[in-house]
Write a structure and sequence with these properties.
Blueprint: H1 5-22, H2 25-39, H3 41-56, H4 58-67, H5 72-86, H6 95-112, H7 114-117, H8 123-129, E1 135-136, E2 139-140, H9 151-176, H10 185-205, H11 210-254, H12 256-270
Antiparallel strand pairs: 1-2
């Protein structure tokens, strides 16, 4: 597709540039993955925080469900208002995936027809031109696992796909574990997507170029680290706010006379 040409050319250029320094096709794809994930980090940040807010709002959601249990329309309005107030996007978890789709298709084309996109002056072009394949842990990154006929040779490909599934499952569980028993339809929808997507990626990895599977695995591992850092920083910030609020409440309780005198002074000033 012509619309993917710019993406494919950009990815091929960046991949060949990285290869000039790394001289490893597999590690070049891994580094390319990290670069792309750093670029889309703002989306990942919004997704992670939205999912975490959804977890933290479970008690509020249950209260609304109890309050409007006989009026579904009012419940939906109340839920929508709460989501807007708390900055929750129930389907925010799939936004980074949608943004990356053009990159997946472009990388698919680069891996399928590398000599059509990679600059002919690069080391990677020469390596591909003079070799039928570039291996990475005994895997040909240009072919899908399904094209490997010998089951012994398939072993590293199967291990790679297994790691894609496991890391994707852990990544989803990492930020949704608090809402496992939620009765909220949106939360249940997120959980269902979280369970289906890892299996889906494992299934399609069987027929995609192995280099793209390396991209999936590297992206999963990188986002696990990203999410852990985001959750840790947000929890620390919330803890600081709670401690500050508790200290202010203690000061008010310890100095009720002083607090009242301040209020009286403010009243006199208004008069």
């Amino acid at each position: 597709m012509a619309i993917l040409e710019p993406f494919a050319l950009a990815i091929a250029f960046l991949l060949s540039y990285i290869y000039d320094f790394i001289a490893s096709y597999g590690f070049s794809i891994a580094i390319l993955t990290i670069v792309i994930n750093v670029i889309i980090f703002p989306l990942t940040l919004r997704q992670t925080r939205s999912t975490k807010r959804m977890q933290d709002a479970q008690s509020d959601i249950k209260a609304l469900q109890k309050k409007h249990k006989d009026n579904k329309e009012e419940l939906n309005k109340a839920m929508a208002g709460m989501y807007k107030e708390k900055g929750i996007n129930p389907l925010g978890c799939i936004l980074p995936l949608i943004v990356q789709m053009p990159i997946w298709f472009a990388l698919f084309r680069v891996l399928r027809e590398p000599l059509s996109f990679i600059p002919d002056t690069s080391k990677l072009f020469n390596a591909l031109e003079n070799s039928t394949s570039l291996t990475f842990f005994n895997m040909d990154l240009q072919i899908p696992p399904s094209e490997v006929s010998d089951w012994v040779e398939r072993a590293p490909y199967l291990v790679l796909i297994l790691f894609v599934i496991l890391t994707a499952l852990y990544q989803q569980q990492q930020i949704t574990k608090k809402s496992n028993n939620s009765n909220n339809p949106q939360a249940q929808q997120m959980q269902m997507i979280g369970k289906v997507m890892p299996v889906f990626f494992g299934f399609i990895s069987w027929t995609l170029p192995t280099g793209l599977v390396v991209y999936f695995l590297t992206g999963n591992i990188f986002r696990i680290g990203q999410q852990a850092l985001i959750v840790k920083l947000d929890d620390r910030e919330e803890s600081k706010k709670e401690n500050t609020k508790d200290e202010e409440d203690e000061q008010k309780n310890d100095n009720p006379v002083q607090e009242n005198s301040r209020k009286n002074r403010k009243k006199r000033r208004r008069k």
